[in-house]
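Data card: per-record layout.
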Amino acid sequence: MQALSTVYQIIAMLTNILVMLIIIQFIIGLLFAFNVVNRSNDFLASFYMAINRFLEPVLRPIRNILPNTGAIDFSPLVLIILLNVVLIVLGNVIHG
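The structure for this 96-residue chain is written out next.
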């Protein structure tokens, strides 16, 4: 039982890191979109591209399922909700 609890804690920590990366990607995207930060800022541009390369394989299948909403991309929100649902289910299975 202790091993399952440890595995759950590790999965929860990795999920939290993934959610933080999604939020950082969203914020940097907004800064670029509203010209608060110029895309010629090499550090932020390379950091943004690295996060995009990491998250794209996870977000692409969600984007393929969701209807096209134009300029608004809801796939990060759907991913965060799905991750939290998985954590809730795992937590109930392990602790219940």
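Known properties of this structure: The CA atoms of residues 30 and 36 lie 8 Å apart. Residues 2-95 form one domain.

See the next section for split statistics.
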